[in-house]
Amino acid sequence: MSNVAVIGAGGFVGLSLIESLILEGRSDIRAVVRNYRNMAGLCRFGTDLDVRLADAENSALLTEALAGVDTVVNLTTGPPSGIIQSTRSIYEACVSVGVRRFVHLSSAVIYGDVCVPVGDDDPPVARHWMPYARAKSMSELWLRERLNNDAIDIVVLRPGIVWGVRSPHTLQIAKALAGKTAYLVNDGKGIFNGIYITNLVRCIRTCCEYPQRVAGFYNVGDSELVTWFDFFDALGPPLGCDCSRLSRVRYDHFPWSSRALVDGIQSLPLVNELYHQLKAHVPDSLKARIRNYLEGMYCYERHATSYAVRVAVERELWHLQRVRYKLPIEKFQNTFQFINPISFTEGIQRTIAWLTTLGFIYRSVSTTA
Amino acid sequence: MSLQLLIVGCGAVAQRLYRKPLQQLEKRGLLQVAALVDPATENANALRAFFTKAKIYDNLENAFAESKLDITLVLSPAHLHFEHVVQALRNYSHVLCEKPMALSADDCARMNAVATETDHILAIGMIRRFFPAYQQFKQMMCDGKLGSLVSFEYREGHKFEWDVTTSVAFRPRMCGGTGVLFDIGPHVVDYLTWLFGDLKVPAYADDAISGIESNVSLEIESHFCRGSIHLSWDCPQSNELRVLGSKGEAVLRVDRFDQLAVRTTSDYELQKIPISFPTDTLRQAQSYMSPKSYVEAIYCQLVQMMRAIKWGEPPAVDGLEGEKCIFLLESALSVACPLDMPWLERSEEEAFRRMHWKNNS
């Protein structure tokens, strides 16, 4: 693999990818971050990593940051309104500096609840309720129009829920399990379309290292068929949670609550854009108060002693738990001769090890004075 | 005449944390922001919009050459604290220096020596001493509510969100970086020392390779009990201090001003927190406040500094206590080893241990 630039390197996928490359002895990796604060997680790599500052929505700045790079990996997130612009800017910067391959991370969320089986090249669902999903869909459509550009390979990876070590999503679920406020939609029968972080890192690296010309759209995910109950039940016991006792939530109609209503209003395109603009100007103290309010009663127990009877259902998680089909991953496996290195069971074990170091899985503390 | 104040370092800390309380104190006629020092003029200009009488300088020497300044607020990057504090003290200005006091205990000792020599106050900004719940916890420990102490666990971490205007904190230590250890560490060590007395660090682990750490774990020993500290710049932790005693357990939420829970029987009970701090500089303070935000806590810290100058009251944290913190953090680095990361591939874990900075220094 020749030199690689990772844009959006400050997030947990970026950190894990860079960690994997550096620990293999690579010293030709470039990390591109939007602002100084995103360097905090990368600072441990010191002189082994070339860190550049550039706004992914500004193709002129990116051109400078990407000069001399062979492969670019786009892991940027941020407000939905910026996702399409950053995809364009990164692509244009790649083309202008002669990047050989552009690996773009999309998301399986573009297929919504996957009510029918879908293939890797099927179009996204129309009029998705979530601004993030709409932006990811539009980015894909924009890139698809450029797939035949001979000058650059465009590889779009579509992971489902990226879970495991350092995943904020997994941490949120672990907290809900420990607090016994987690819930199962349709008894947890929905398909957990996840990919363990190391498997995703390996997928990305495989794309970067693949020696022949390649382009296209690929679903990536774990090998096993896993339901939401399986996932919760694998993580639950070490967190003191018996998943058979968790609240059940109806499948047919979304259970609206005041919080869900706020989420719903916030997902309207104009409101969402305004929210992301205002967010930067809201004082920290006010943000903290809002966070406290939304957080509700704090659980001082390491693991809650009683199971929540009424739970606040988040619309995104509700939809994720309604997924009916596993996304096929054979196209990626066949094209790249790829086998996921980590099984679901192994991923769970590593996740539990991580949660233990974070103190969410309780180890009795030393009592020697 | 109100106290004349100089700010050195007009970046994010000055603009986001200190600006409002200083404006309030100016409005009450208790002090006047007279000088702003920052080589980045855009930072100084941003502050001057709020302190219109202040003059802007690009270095401390010019500021002191022009006027007599009673207090210097050192808010510059940590690796410049030594130089700025010493310069201010030598110009007979009292100093309130943001944490960390400096990046080495040697520098701290020299700063304290200059403070003694010039007979001026050197106080360290440890804002959490002004969090009511923190004070209440200290009171509770003094009252023996938990019985004899058994152990403690301190965890603080989240994705770094502070809008820094430079990358200095993230550079290798020899280039002025603080890492998470010298960023959050001074707050934690200061508070735990205050709670438990002198501490020792028998073991310390971090995740730095050729750079500076973003995750650390420390084992801690005090005369009364043992415990651990876990800090992170890239991963959320539980953000709690849990102290176990023979009569019960207490939980302090590290990012909350007024939440402290104690369990002596079966359930945790939130404690009443009747703690407040003076907000005037009268000999017998007439007004008090129980801070509920960083801005309010900093207001109280600034008032405390003014009371120290005016009435000789001790500052919340003086240079000697600041030095003790840095000494302890330095002692941790001397026993550093690679952080345990059992989720890595075996080959990655071996590589990490081989590449860890301590094995290559």
Percent of residues of chain A in beta strands? 5-15%
- Gyration radius from CA atoms of chain A, angstroms: 21 Å
Helical/strand content category of chain A: alpha/beta
Q: Could you report the average pLDDT of chain B, rounded to the nearest whole number?
A: 95
Low-confidence stretches of chain A: 364-369
Rounded to the nearest angstrom, the distance between the terminal CA atoms of chain A is: 53 Å
Oligomer state equals heterodimer
Largest sheet of chain A: 7 strands, parallel
Order of helices and strands of chain A: EHEEHEHEHEEHEEHEHEHHHHHH
* Structure annotation, total helices of chain A: 13
Q: Biggest interface, and residues per chain?
A: A-B, 50 and 69 residues
Task: Sketch the topology of chain B as an H/E string, one letter per element.
Answer: EHEHEHEHEHEHEHHEEEEEEEEEHHEH
Number of strands of chain A: 11
**DSSP helical segment count of chain B:** 11
For the largest sheet of chain B, list the strands in their spatial order: 14-13-12-11-7-10-9-8-17
Strand proportion of chain B: 15-25%
Low-confidence stretches of chain B: none
Question: What is the CA-atom radius of gyration of chain B, in angstroms?
Answer: 21 Å
Shape of chain A: globular
Q: How many beta-strand runs of chain B?
A: 17
Keywords:
A: 369 residues; alpha/beta; 7-stranded parallel beta sheet; two-stranded parallel ribbon; globular; disordered C terminus; B: 361 residues; 9-stranded mixed beta sheet; 6-stranded parallel beta sheet
Plain-language structure description:
The complex is a heterodimer of chains A (369) and B (361). With 369 residues, chain A is α/β, with parallel strands linked by helices. Helix content of chain A is 39%, strand content 12%. Chain A has helices spanning 12-23, 59-66, 80-97, 131-144, 168-178, 197-209, 228-235, 258-266, 269-279, 284-295, 315-320, 330-336, 344-357, and strands at 4-7, 29-33, 50-53, 71-74, 101-105, 153-159, 161-163, 183-185, 194-196, 216-220, 247-249. In chain A, the strands form three sheets. Chain A has a seven-stranded parallel beta sheet, sandwiched between helices. In chain A, helix 1 (12-23) packs across helix 6, helix 2 packs across helix 3 and helix 3 (80-97) runs parallel beside helix 4 (131-144). The radius of gyration of chain A is 21 Å and the shape is globular. Chain B is built from eleven helices and 17 strands. Chain B is α/β, with parallel strands linked by helices and 361 residues long. The radius of gyration of chain B is 21 Å and the shape is globular. A nine-stranded mixed beta sheet of chain B has the order 14-13-12-11-7-10-9-8-17. Chain B has a six-stranded parallel beta sheet with strand order 3-2-1-4-5-6, sandwiched between helices. In chain B, strands 15-16 form a two-stranded antiparallel sheet. At the A-B interface, helix 1, helix 10 and helix 13 of A face strand 7, strand 10 and helix 11 of B.
